[in-house]
Specification:
The structure is a homodimer.
Chain A lengths: L1 E6 L13 E6 L5 E5 L5 H5 L9 E5 L5 H4 L2 H10 L8 E5 L3 H11 L8 E5 L4 E5 L3 E7 L7 E7 L8 H6 L7 H6 L3 E3 L5 E3 L12 E4 L8 H6 L4 E5 L7 H6 L5 H10 L4 E5 L8 H13 L3 E3 L5 E3 L11
Helix pairs in contact in A: 9-10
Cofactor (chains A, B): Zn(2+)
Catalytic activity (chains A, B): Endonucleolytic cleavage of RNA, removing extra 3' nucleotides from tRNA precursor, generating 3' termini of tRNAs. A 3'-hydroxy group is left at the tRNA terminus and a 5'-phosphoryl group is left at the trailer molecule
GO molecular function, one term (chains A, B): 3'-tRNA processing endoribonuclease activity
Amino acid sequence: MELEFLGTGAGSPSKSRNVSAVALKLLDEIKKIWLFDVGEGTQHQILNTTIRPRKIDKIFITHMHGDHIFGLPGFLSSRSFQGGEKMGPLTIYGPKGISDFVNISLKVSQTKLSYELNFVELEEEGLLLENDRFKVYAYKLDHRIECWGYRIEEKDYPGELQVEKLREAKAPSGPIYGRLKAGEVVTLEDGRTIDGKDFIGKAKKGRIVTILGDTRQTPNLKLLAKDADVLVHESTFGKGEGKLARNYHHSTCVQAATLAKEVGVKQLLLTHISARYVGKMVKVLEKEAKKVFPNTKVVKDFDTFNIPFPERKDDEQ
Amino acid sequence: MELEFLGTGAGSPSKSRNVSAVALKLLDEIKKIWLFDVGEGTQHQILNTTIRPRKIDKIFITHMHGDHIFGLPGFLSSRSFQGGEKMGPLTIYGPKGISDFVNISLKVSQTKLSYELNFVELEEEGLLLENDRFKVYAYKLDHRIECWGYRIEEKDYPGELQVEKLREAKAPSGPIYGRLKAGEVVTLEDGRTIDGKDFIGKAKKGRIVTILGDTRQTPNLKLLAKDADVLVHESTFGKGEGKLARNYHHSTCVQAATLAKEVGVKQLLLTHISARYVGKMVKVLEKEAKKVFPNTKVVKDFDTFNIPFPERKDDEQ
């Protein structure tokens, strides 16, 4: 998995930072891409990446502020104009009202999409979706308007079948390998029984990525961020601006770092950077956060991060 | 007056052309700026110009296709965020539905503007607005959906008072200059009467700028473009693609040039260039049009054109 930031600014675009959007690339066998927020100009940013809009099959919206949603109608329309193979469906997850906004925008512009568009408007906190490879959880944050954070849990990869060890045990190769890999107990032709579980290597833990919308500090953040391999957290304000952050329903870099430290996050990526922070001041934001949580980075537009598999203690595997 | 193109592409943004927007800068004493269409990313383009959003007090929308309106909510919101002196009101002229689109976008995003926003939805063709300096006319074009073209007529500048000639006539300077300039007949202290009209130089003709939305060729184009000093015309297709242009409710470069020639246009600016036209092919578009109407240019994003005063025959002045 890889994260690519398409917009890392707050409120309005600036010359150096577009408004919010981040792509989560599910590499490996799935090759789909999920977008989190679609500020105005996200489709323009995508033109400068290797992301192909047809690969984006899910969009998660944190909240309805313009700098997080105004790029949605244009992105959806342009995705429709792309030729070639049949365009797959796309599902948008977001707060109540997101389907109205998109549908009205498409209707007034008389845009007929070439693909199926589905909406899931969030109501209850907890497990939002589950498929073969992922579970996605959504919990409410504390912002000026309804706002959600997302926790993407990759499922564990099952261990590999240890073929060499099976050969040593003189188990015949063939269809029984599939049953052994599934963990079954198999009776061989010579009467011996062997247990698949004894021939499967260690499972590889899946990764956890937490992507938050704009928020004050609130207990749900701990639920969302616990043990995350990567936490994407807003940092609209700097150290010493806690009061401002609270008044404007945002967070400081130090609050984000404190959360990361408290709940065992591996890497903290700070985004939603105010236009007031430029040049050296961005380094100061990062430095202040690093004092609390060393593995912190203030991201820029187009920054890309590979998400490594977590190292776990043996007894957990 | 000056035209600055902020987006010159068709349908979707490309790396080299953004979707539609053009700014008409009313220099001289007014110093206001009028925008024609606001495709997604127009506010981003403005960041790379000297245009200050607060100076934009009128927006004219040609039609409701997404590549002409999806930048409107973001532009309006960001204009609101700008600090400093009190922000003046802004009026949007456009087809029926434009106020719904904007109001719903602002409502769902809970955006409260810091300035007064007014709408004028077009119904009848003809004179749309008149002030001290300008008349703006709107006529319907022939596109897939309701679409309008705008003709901006600058009023003539009255001639200057010929102070030297007054001195020669030994007319005393002072408050009577104002009355003479207004064309009054004034009785001097020495009993002579002098006619202001004899001491006013030639009037300067105002300029005519015609900015069209997407369109097939249709008789209203002639009404809109007659004697225009500058005609901004779409050129989605090239020579020999007349049938395609007709089917998709667009024009070819040669159709635009033919119109310009027929109705006495001074300069033709071709925009709304398809992403199919890049590099040398753009030059070909321009060359084909120039064969019919030599003073033609295919515009690029950020191209800026000063609009010169027309030279008129003496008897017209």
